[in-house]
Specification:
Layout (H helix, E strand, L loop, with lengths): L1 H17 L25 E7 L4 H16 L3 E7 L7 H7 L5 E3 L3 H7 L6 E6 L4 E5 L6 H14 L1
Parallel strand pairs: 1-2, 2-3
Antiparallel strand pairs: 1-4, 4-5
């Protein structure tokens, strides 16, 4: 019985460890060969993981687009697993102001350990993760607070 319990606990630990996020606050985000996420010194980038049929994505996307447009130091890049043509117009409608977009971004979802959308990550110019989570939790004050906190800690 004790052996079965030990095996069960080991399997659960391995399973939960395997499904954990691949990024951590303060650590560098993984490099992406197929997509340039660099920004100038003193600037930030919001990485948005989206899926057009998702109701939470369709609710949060316009809000995030407005927020990014209202803060000068931050730009955006959007990633979707959908292929070109499936969601192109939706992304253009939501993020028209110079956002980078990568469709068919399975590799990027995998590198960041993202299993659901919407999901967001804010990086600084050194590719350090400043924030990650559900973008529905963001507002202008929260983004400015994240930037201010990390500017102070540099």
């Amino acid at each position: 019985m004790r052996l079965k319990l030990t095996i069960l606990v080991a399997l659960l630990v391995a399973w939960f460890g395997a499904t954990a996020q691949n990024i951590a606050i303060g650590e560098r985000a993984p490099k992406i060969k197929s997509f340039d996420i660099s920004v100038p010194k003193g600037h930030y980038i919001y990485l948005g993981f989206v899926h057009s049929p998702s109701r939470p994505c369709s609710i949060s996307a316009p809000k995030i687009s407005e927020l990014i447009d209202s803060i000068e130091e931050i730009s955006a890049a959007l990633f979707t697993r959908e292929r070109q043509g499936e969601c192109e117009q939706w992304l253009i409608d939501m993020f028209i102001n110079g956002s980078k977009v990568q469709m068919g971004a399975d590799e990027i979802f995998q590198k960041f350990g993202v299993d659901y959308a919407p999901y967001g990550v804010i990086l600084d110019y050194k590719r350090r993760v400043l924030w990650q989570g559900n973008p529905q939790m963001l507002d202008k004050n929260k983004i400015e607070q994240i930037i201010e906190q990390w500017t102070f800690l540099k």
